[in-house]
Amino acid sequence: MLRLDINKKFEPLRSCVGMHKKLHDHYNFQIIFEMATEPSASATPVKQENGVASAAGTASRFDQLYDKCATSPPGTVFFQRDLSALQVADTMEELLGLINGLCAQHLLKQLLFDNEPCWKLRDRREAEKLRTLTPDEHVLYQHIDQAQNEGVWSKALRAKTNFAQPTLTKCLKSLESKDLVQSIMSVKFPARKMYLLKYLTPSEDIAGGLWQNNGDFDMAMIDELSNAARQKIEELTCVRVPAKWNNYQRSERAAAIAHKKAHVLGLRDIEDGAPVRPYKLPVHGSSTRLVYKSNPTYPTATTMAAWLNGTDVLKGKVARDVDMEQLLEMMVLDGRLEKASAISYRTALNINDTKTLNGFVDAPCGTCPVFDLCADDGDISARTCVYFGEWLGTESEEIY
Amino acid sequence: MSYTQHETPALAELCSFLVQDIYGELAARVYSILARYGRQNLNQLVRASYLNRRQISLGLVTLVQSHLVFHSSRVSPVTAYEIDWQQSYALVRFGKVVKSVEDRFGKNASAIVGNLLEHGHTRIGDLKNALFPPQNPSEDYGDEGTNGAGAKRKRANGTNANGADGKVNGIVNGATNGALEEEQGTGAPDKMYLKTVDEFYDAIHLLMQTGWVMKVDEMQYLSPGDYHQVALTQVLDERWNGQMPSGTKDKGNVKKDLCQRKRNIRDAWAEPPQFVKTKRNPNSGTYEQSNKRIKINGTHALPSSGGGDNFDNAEDRLPIRINRDKIAVAMRTDQLVRLAEQRLGTTTARIYEIMLREIESQVPRCFEEWPDPPPDPKSAEPPPPPPTYLVTTREVELRTKDFDICEGLDPQAVSKITGRSLDRNLKMEDPVDPADLGQYQRFELIHAHIDLLSRDPFRFVTWHSGSGHSEWQIEFGEIAQRHIQQEIENTVSARKPQFGLKLIRALKKKGKLDERQAGLTMMIPAAEIRGVVNDLAVQGFVQTQEVPKVERREAKHSIHLIWYDRQRAREKLLHDTYKGMIRIIQRIAFEREKVQAVLEKAERTDVRGNESRFLGRDELDMLNSWKDVEERLLLQLSREDDLVAILRDFHGALISS
After folding, report:
1. A biological process (GO) annotation for this entry (chain A) (predicted)?
2. pLDDT per residue as tens digits for the range A376-396
3. How many CB pairs under 8 A join A and B?
4. Are residues A313 and A291 in the same domain?
5. Which single residue of A166, A366, B609, B624 could bond A360 by disulfide (Cβ 3.0 to 4.6 Å)?
6. Residue B479 is assigned to a structural domain of this protein
7. Pair A97, A58: CB distance under 8 Å
């Protein structure tokens, strides 16, 4: 459980290399470790254990070392000098013995950094489970562990381990039943089953971005958030104008002058008559309409992502700029937004409430399911068309 | 061959219906033979039909007079006939043409245009004689000068006037949906338009000046193929001694010259002729002035125009016809305004309309069929920029006096410009009358509207030059392409409301995609796409492609791509629209058939005008509902024609990128 939290915290930060010393190390170390596979871990510690004489004293020493290590922040990587600084063992040999013992119990995980061995603490419960593994399962576990949150494809596992397919399947099943690994569908290759450790959250590459869930788009969430984004963008780029916002009474002076002039001169000509009054559209009293703002700040994917992360709708997840861009671009395709420039968006207004499309599709033929079958005569024709009949409210010719 | 001369079976059928509707059965029979067999000479026509030579000749005369067929008598000893699809299709928009001319130039001009459309072409003098029978050359002309709206002139010779009147009204009425019904209904012998011969000439000159009416030329009767041959021969004779040069570069030059020659010949048709203004008032030379002004100034005697066929001046002898290119330009204006209205509201659209109308007379056509240099699919060079048409804010401001230019803007912008404050509900605390604003403020308001137009993704206008906001340019080509795309999208989204639009746009943006990528772009599960793709592929709006990954072509080992080609979709939609129009015409015929008996009774001379007396109640009901149905179908027909114009007439072939 503890681990799980760590990883969550690490996840977003890992992208920025070198921010923090420890993190930096962690990052490098992962890469190097992937190249240097751990040699048979089970063999050496057994030999070492035999060499240790006083079992009871050492056992408490094991716990002592483990507990001392556990006091440091979770996820810390210990080098030999760090462990000796804990001052649990008196000599270097004893320390090595202790370390090997812990490794054998899977309480420590041996790693390599710059060709220097180092260790990481494992949860006791997890170690318990690991101790129950068969050697085959253990090998698989290590391979899966190596892939970290990128996951490893079952076929790739087979290629690496040279196991027979039945063995592989059996071992993987057993690992899954012991709650050590999980399998998920890859987004990139829907046919591939990817394995990764249970406590890891799969990377973007295999699980998809923010919008995907188990390889499929989370439609409910996308709908919800795109609506929220639409509203926000509407707020930013449009303004709702009440009817009669500029309810002016036309000054009658100019008209009066012209009228008088015409009267005095007795002249009757259109050009000398009163100037035409500006035409005003009849408006409904309470209706409002949207118009574009005159000086809008057009939102971009970056500003929208910042807004979304600020609203706490995502419940712990973080929308990156690329996620937001994907969503906004989709909404442009949808016709809900339109591009104001290369990177900014605005609401797409449709002034007319009534949806008129074009002359063709507003007629029955435009959306007729049997349009291609319709001919000049025969069973399907303009004479017998039920859609025309419905549209015009007239009778069509009956066909029997 | 020109892009617009493509012929499709649906178009052929549609045009045959139209010809039959307007020019009767004989012409339609001959027309349909030509539609089926393509280019034919008279003998071939006789062989291909049951009609005899005389009947066919009669039909051809009608068709030739109305420019529905090309003929090659100028270039070949045996005349071959070929259908002019563009002109034939244009029959459907006669009403619209009359209406838009009336909108722009008033009823005088629209009456002339109506006549020209009906007759194909006519000499100016003939048209004048038809409208103003020479027996009574405008007798009481004198008092016309002073009274504009007050008294109306009575015609002494009622029969003659009515004869001409009725004819003109007939067209205009049918076309403009009874806009003039009222006038005719009153039965007054005087008409509201074309009161004097002078007005007639004014209108003709105005139409020629603005390019709506052009000269008739023999070359106009040549089909695009013949026209090409003639132009090519001319070019080769002039510069290459009648021989086609062999070098690649020379061939390119020939091509270029050929395009230029074609352009020159065509442009010469629309060149307004310079007439000697012997009997016309010098003031009327400027067409910006209203007719009214001319009338007030002018009290001059009109020499009675010579009767018969021998017109004494060149002007009357000049045969004229409607310039089809200009019709498309006007339709483009209307469509763009409609589009702007949908997107930005009435007021802004009104401003846009003013801008478009401002430059309309400078725009000879929507797109250049023979561009310079000729398009070369191989060369990477972008095509030359189309001619620029500029409008200034000042020109727009002059024409915005009669509506509220504050409407449709952000109230805050208006408040900033006018310096009046807003209350919390965005209402003006001190309402502002746009008529009271100073010129600078009006400029600013109009600029705000134009700004809306320029920020729209359609880029209705583009800023061109001038400090601040003086000159604006309208990039028609770009807009037309987006417009076509928009109509395709509209159609698709009506047919596949859920994902159709999204898919088309995604494919347009990203190019060829497989299902998974398309799903990622559209953010929907890939499985949902399949159904939409299937339907759209069947309808011809998207294409699918299978690329095998291994040597054996197996579905499992292939990449399945979906793609979208705008030009293909455009052609498909155009074809479908033609077909939809055919169905509407057929439905009209069917609906008419159902009420045939009542119609026949209603059209009897004794019943006409006294319908309520002679027809029974249910007969009247049937008649009324038939009228409703017909009106509805005709309206839809004209809307489908709008779509055809958008798809076909505003832009040449789309070279897909």
Report:
1. transcription by RNA polymerase III
2. 888 888 989 999 999 988 888
3. 223
4. yes
5. A366
6. no
7. yes
